[in-house]
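go over both lines:
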Amino acid sequence: MRLQERHAAFKEWFIPKRKRRVGAVMVVIWVIGMVINPSVHWSWSYIGGLGMFYFISAWPPELHDKR
């Protein structure tokens, strides 16, 4: 399968519900990692930041725009 086809299939599979779950799991892993080994904060912050990005960006726009 070509790269473009695989990317399109991934975009279909990665729906907002799954995106929220992945983001929440990444944030939980980040918190656990910071508690267990706080000296490696820079690598854990990438996981937490990306997890927060996925989690927050997966909400529908109707919840953000209350005009």
